[in-house]
Amino acid sequence: MKKFFAGLITGIIVAISFTAFAAVQLKVVPNPYPVYINNVKSDVSGYNINGSTYLKTTDFKSAGLDVKYNKNKKQIEVKSTTTGLTNNNSGTTGNNQNPVFLYEGDAKDTTYRGYKAILYNGDTFINAVEFLKKLKMTIKYNTKQDSYQFYKNEVKILETLNSTSEYYIVYENRPYFNVKFLGEYLEG
Q: Cα separation of 182 and 159, whole Å?
């Protein structure tokens, strides 16, 4: 009889242990939400564990990014916490400023002389892609001088001195150039 009770007690303990283990089991599925980095859908992997989404935020933080969940859109948004590269151009005004990064809703959409444009802080900026196509120009970014260089027929005709909004901003991951800077080149 003692063996029966010992076996019964052991069985009950084992059954309770398995029940307790089953209660804390995690439900892990691939992340069902899209991840956006600077308003561009990204291929970042993550997991949803018991209804919570987990991404390696250390990877994002080390890249100078901020991670937030947008409840209204039901999406994860990652935005830059820095505003660009350090300005190493010795020909600058000494402000050592970085480019301005804008996102949807930060500026007002408009047009300027037939170009897609935005209004920001009282200045008008035009879409670089449209401008370059129409005038058959090419553009290069000089990382050493932190400047954009405009070429027509392989001859440099225009260059930004630094990355301030006096010259350009980045709106929805595309460069937009200040019409004050482009001036006569807008005449075509």
A: 10
Cα torsion 29, 35, 41, 45: sign? negative
CA-wise closest residue to 43 among 68, 72, 78: 78
DSSP letter, residue 186: G
Q: CA 89, CA 6: separation in Å to the nearest integer?
A: 82
Neighbours of 130 (CB within 10 A): 14
User: DSSP 3-state assignment of 170?
Assistant: strand
User: CB atoms < 10 A from the CB of 128, how many?
Assistant: 20
Going from the first residue of the chain to its last (188 residues), give the mean pLDDT of each consecutive group of 10, the final group possibly shorter. Answer: 66 66 69 70 74 69 68 79 36 48 84 89 87 83 78 84 78 84 74
Q: Quick one: tokens of 137?
A: 């120009």
How far CA 144 is from CA of 41, 131, 140, 178, in Å, comes to 29, 25, 12, 22
